Amino acid sequence: MTLHAPPLPPALLARVEPMRLSLQAAADRMQESLIGGAFSSIARESGDGAAALFLPDGRLAAQANSLPLLLGALGPAVAAVLARFPAAEMRPGEAFLLNDPWAGGAHLPDLTLVRPAFHDGALIGFAAASLHHQDVGGTQPGSIPPDATSVFHEGLRIPPLRSHVDDRPDPGIAALLRANSRTPELLTGDLGAQLAATRLGGAELARLAAREGAGFAPLCAALIDQSARMTEAALEALPDGTATWEDALDGDGITAAPVPLRVRLEKRGARLAIDFTGTAPQTAGPVNAAPAAMMAAALFFMRCLAPDAPNNAGCLAPLSLTLPEGSLVNPRFPAAVNARTGTVKLACNAILGAWSRICPEAAAAAHAGVAAVLAFGGEDGAGRPFFLTEIVASGAGGSAAGPGAGGLSTDVGNARNMPIELLEARLPLRVEAYGLAPGSGGAGAGPGGRGILREWRLLEGHGTVSYRSERHATRARGAEGGADGAPSRAWVERADGRREALPARARFAWTAGDLLHIETAGGGGWGRPGTAKNTRQAPTDGESHET
Amino acid sequence: MSDWAIGIDTGGTYLDLVALGPGARRLSAKAPLGPDRSAAVLAALREFLDQAGIAPAAVGRVVHGTTLVTNLLLEQGAPPVAVVTNRGFEDVLAIGRQSRRDLYAFRPRGEAPERIFPEALRHGISGRLDARGQELTPLDAQELATLGARLAREGVAAAAVCLLHAVRNPAHERAVRAALLDTCPDLAISLSHEVSALPGEAERFLATALDAYVKPALSHYLLDLGAGLGALGLPQPELVTSDATLAEGIEAVRRPLRLAMSGPASALRGFALAAGPAPVVSIETGGTTTDIGLIEAGAPLFTRKLDLGAFSLATHAADVASVAVGGGSVAAVNAGGALRLGPRSAGAVPGPAAMGRGGVEPTLTDALMLLDRLPMQLAGGLRLNRLAAERAMLPLARALACTPRAAAEAVLAAATAAIAEAVKLHAFRRGIDPASASLLAGGGGGPQHAAEVAAAAGFREAIVLPDAGVISALGGLASSTVDVAECAPDLPLDPAHFPALRAAAAALPPAGPGAQSWTAGVLYEGQAEPLALPFAPEADDACALAARFDALHARLRGHALDLPRRVAWLRRSRDRGDAPLGAAGPAPAWELPGEGPLPARGAGPRALFAAQTTIWVPEGWSWRLGAAGALHLAPGAAA
């Protein structure tokens, strides 16, 4: 059982909730400052960055509301900094930088900056900010090479190091970073945004320490305790049990052979063990997920159990997480790790799937969990270059409460779509259809949500399309007698009418008149079709039933 | 003889009324609201006119702010609407932006309110335009006739016409409306290009569907109200829109989504009356929420993305953020043994325990009652019950292992922190530093929290206006009719394209005489959200506009970028200057019922029980009466 903090003195009772609100708001303002201040479009427009505050011992005090994919990514970074740089020797104005997947990093483009915060000369915590940078070197622009087979293909690896003194970047390190990026100006600007966010966070921490005086540390401890108690209470109220779930990636980017993933959940009282033993060994291709990336899959589940609990280290108190070394989910050096998102999503949905077997009534059938990434590049009829990246979501699982949502970003992702009116105004493409893929949701009393159907026609010029999807070879499984969702599929219809099927990962050339058709997978169905009990009368915000 | 102008604002529980008359007379009143809104408004008006001795013939204007549209959108109880859209795109509304708001849920939901536009009512038709508005496929007249007959047969009351690229060429949407009206003459129809002039189908289609959704109910309400006002011999109402301007009833029914933030926008206009050159953050605390508004250089700040409940609406509106803290917010202890305030509210019924309408759960109002910060009797005559408040607080105190008074203090501290943090975030987003801004408080509950919120958020002082309790009704009277025209040129901001930008501005329908002002939405290539900045089509050149944009970007985001810039939209507004209330004018004097006039200075701790609101002056703080009756609260001794 978890050890809980001692009860608070009565005088601090009224300060707990203000402290929770202030810490969360400070982290959220850091996040706004980080994303608003970013230079590169990937961070600015897709919010691919995270900000959080930590206690002096490295425990998470508050993480901003951001992309769930980055949940828990900063904790291992702070731990890695503390493992190399004793807290007692840190000085105000210093900051530490890293991206090493074997020392607190997730993948190389995510640089994490950790800055200690002081009040009255004493260390009171850390502000940390991580941002997806445009380019940190490696074999391909953007530093996410799909054919990487080693971290050395992916760019510059940075172990935890002291990057800033007196809030100024160390000139030698700054020069080294710039020399290793194809976009040195963006890198410098984005690192500046990270420093600004961590300074803001540090100032907020100091303000809170001044406001609460001697109450500051006990209040922080009480909030971590509160989160642990809430998560434990949520677990305690649910049935005990053990379940496993198996699923697979459609290849590792190098070969199309399925990469199996296995998870076992064991829930006893207020404790939960998540064990990925049995998952495939690490792959040659870049789909491996470092522990700092895998934290998101586990933490996502803990947050679902108690969404109102403070987003701090307490959420993890009931959890034991096993990531077998040398596997897809904890690869040994020097594995390639840049394309970890698909793996983290698969792992997150596997946890949810196993949970649906332990606690069917409160859970849902499997989400498809597909976020197909399409990159269109080429030249229009006048020879002007164009480029566009889109992410297409899929279907959520049905449940005892009714149908699953169709065409929705689920689990650790939350990507938005590209508006058709803007796309057609900027690119020589026309979207010929956009909707929910007919019949793609698994049948059930609570049918699975449908995947998305989208078609693009190239109107002029020529170009290439990179298509990265999942679930061409697998299906989101139904639960309690519900049917599986339909798999993803895609094809190119050439101007002359020939149709060429595409695998889950493909790169192809096309010319004016060709059409790309994709359908993302549907969610699993819940319960045998036709057995719904009153769910149809219950108003839901979800889509209509499958016909 | 049209000497009087009357402002009426209906909130969730109360109706506020302000009347301006000859010789700068200003009267105000508050009345409880019943379920039949138009009847309640008419009854309150009749009673007010009788008591004040004002003849209906002497009333020249009736200005009305209403939460009707807001409530229709939040409650979602109205009949669903039909959607007419391009074939192959029937699910655009259901998918929205494919993102979700609640990140952590075992059963994730999209943001689209599908019960408002169910799949069976979403109809695809022939006809398609390209991104320049050129026709790719024509409409099919036979198909539209069949669809119209079907809608008539199904008894659909409202339809949203949502066609791709309609903002580039409205011809198809107009033709669809004409065809549908042929077969369904009573159908309420909203066209997407009339609801929003901006590209981006997901947001525009949603706004259009919601616009159609609220049309029938608003239309009924205004017909009833208009008839009743006519019978009383009063003029037809002008409605306050989300951007704090006035619209005639018929105009409001044409685009009812414009009323989504009617009340908060009126309040912001009321606050702006008292604002000087320095930035102002306003808080207005009601029964369920606290609204936070921003004022710069005496004018409200606006947004194009309005968050209302679960919706993000593409509509031009006062930039008012809402935090779920109000007098009725319920306090509870959760599974972690921790106190939480809200988001649930006891509302008006059963209401806080102290109000004696059957509420038993402890609310913020009950906490204030226990801390002796409320009068024994509220404006409108309701007597408060301290014992009931204490009884409600007991279980909370037991769960927290403290006294009821300590529990009340914890509830209040939570309310203060929640409002203060929301204020800081909202101000931060628009580049306003609380240290150099004022906090203005209104609403029934705002002045109660003003000083403590100011202290927690870092303001130097808080200001309470003498009309704080009826600030929305007053703000309606300070609003004027504004004619707006918009277009979305989506052009690069450079000297080569500037003539085209001027041409786009010149192509807008001609404005009437009078002063015009322009704003432009500018962004860097690759960005999604433009920033709004002032624009002068004739006087500006590309460099001037670009420099202004870079400066604003640097102020809000910390730096300017070395990227090409684009102009996403232009907006021209012409203020007719017809506001019933020009300037703040002489304000009513502060009166403490039973105690006489408010002393010009004094020190806390003290609760000032004014007629329509209570002002709390904390220990170590003092108050002083300033210009136009504004009550200034600041830390330190009374000077």
Please give a handful of descriptors for the protein shown.
heterodimer; A: 547 residues; alpha+beta; 2 domains; seven-stranded antiparallel sheet; five-stranded antiparallel sheet; 25% helix; 23% strand; disordered C terminus; B: 639 residues; Nucleotidyltransferase, domain 5; Rossmann fold; nine-stranded mixed sheet; 34 strands; 31% helix; globular
Description:
The complex is a heterodimer of chains A (547) and B (639). In chain A, helix 1 packs antiparallel against helix 5. Chain A has helices spanning 16-37, 41-46, 74-84, 171-179, 184-212, 216-236, 291-305, 341-358, 420-426, and strands at residues 49-54, 60-63, 95-98, 110-119, 122-132, 161-165, 168-169, 241-249, 259-268, 271-275, 319-322, 372-379, 385-392, 429-436, 452-458, 462-468, 489-493, 499-501, 505-511, 515-519. Chain A has nine helices and 20 strands. Chain A has 547 residues and is an alpha+beta fold. A seven-stranded antiparallel beta sheet of chain A has the order 2-1-5-4-3-6-7, with helices on both faces. In chain A, 25% of the residues lie in helices and 23% in strands. Chain A folds into two domains: 10-229, no CATH class; 364-547, no CATH class. Chain A is globular. The termini of chain A are far apart. Chain B is of the alpha+beta class and 639 residues long. Among the domains of chain B are: 4-73 and 219-256, ATPase, nucleotide binding domain (Nucleotidyltransferase, domain 5), CATH 3.30.420.40; 78-215, Rossmann fold; 329-414, no CATH class; 487-569, no CATH class. Chain B is 31% helix and 27% strand. Chain B has 16 helices and 34 strands. In chain B, the strands form nine sheets. In chain B, strands 13, 14, 15, 18, 21, 22, 30, 33 and 34 form a nine-stranded mixed beta sheet that branches. In chain B, strand 33 and strand 34 (631-635) form a beta hairpin. In chain B, helix 2 (68-75) crosses helix 7 and helix 10 crosses helix 11. Chain B starts with a strand and ends with a strand. Classes of the chains: A alpha+beta (547), B alpha+beta (639). The interface between A and B is large, with 85 and 72 residues.
